[in-house]
Amino acid sequence: MLRNPDFILYIASSFIIFAVAYVPATFLPDLMHEFKKSPKEVYICLMTMGLCDLVGRLLFGAFVHKMPRYMPFIHSAGVMLLSLSSGLIILSRSFGTFLIMSGILGLGLGCYAGMHFLMATLLLPLDDVRFGYGIALTFGGIALVTGMPLAGFVTDSVKSEIGAFIFSSVLFFIGCFLECIIGIREIFWKTSTEVKSRYNSATTDSDIKIQKDVTVINSVDIETTYM
After folding, report:
1. Residues 68-73: contacts with CB within 8 Å, 24+ apart?
2. What is the pLDDT of residues 39-83, one digit of tens each?
3. Whose CA, among 9, 90, 106, 182, lies 20 to 30 Å from 194?
4. Does 218 map to a domain?
């Protein structure tokens, strides 16, 4: 299992993304208060994020059902939404832009959380899925414990909630990059390997068939000679 490069990348991306997975929802109220938004507007944005989380799970799940081969890229697209919206939300000033960015954050979170287990089933044999996913969740839990204090430290350092969102945006981007590597390896590298394997298998089968034919012909010639 630990010799599987794709699984190692999966664990690394899980650790990085889990470190800041809850930063947007945790720091969004403080960010909006920093820009003088009312508590009612904050609640509406948080509810929108939660609703879009559900929509993201259903929407991206439907995409994976239609295109299961491209699951790593679909999963990384959700992380990219998190990275972009976390970086752009700091530019928001009106309630409408905060609402839109909150919705995009929710979609990205829903995509990532809803498909995290499915990625393990893609990368590991069925017998190793439970243990492998447990390892990924263990590293994710460690990241959660360390990531939030780090985000708070960055916020205190820059004396603004903007720091937490920039910090999370950078880590989301790194996690997205790692998952794109998984997708490239799963689709292109493994596909070419399977084609070569099938070609070698077909070549071997044809050689065996030719040898059998030659043996039959030789035996017929021997029988004809003795007759």
Report:
1. 69/187, 70/183, 70/187, 71/115, 71/118, 71/119, 71/122, 71/183, 72/119, 72/122, 72/179, 72/180, 72/182, 72/183, 72/186, 72/187, 73/180, 73/183, 73/187
2. 999 999 999 999 999 999 999 999 999 988 889 999 999 999 999
3. 9
4. no
Question: Closest by alpha carbon to 83, among 61, 57, 62, 101?
Answer: 101
Residue of 135, 193, 137 lying closest to 17 (CA atoms): 137
CA 120 to chain centre: 10
Average pLDDT over every residue of 120-137:
90
Q: Is residue 199 part of a domain?
A: no
53 occurs within a structural domain: yes
| CATH classification of the domain holding 136 | 1.20.1250.20
Q: State the Cα–Cα distance between residues 191 and 188, nearest whole angstrom.
A: 5
Q: How crowded is residue 50: how many other Cβ atoms within 10 Å of its Cβ?
A: 15
Tell which residue, 179, 176, 173, 175, has the closest CA to residue 86: 173
Instruction: Encode pLDDT of 173-211 as tens digits.
Output: 999 999 999 988 888 776 544 434 443 443 444 444 445
Query: Which two structure tokens, joined as six digits, stand for 195?
Result: 């084609």
Q: How many domains does the chain have?
A: 1
Provide the domain limits for residue 48: 5-189
Let me know if residue 99 belongs to a domain.
yes
- Determine the average pLDDT of the residues in 117-139: 90
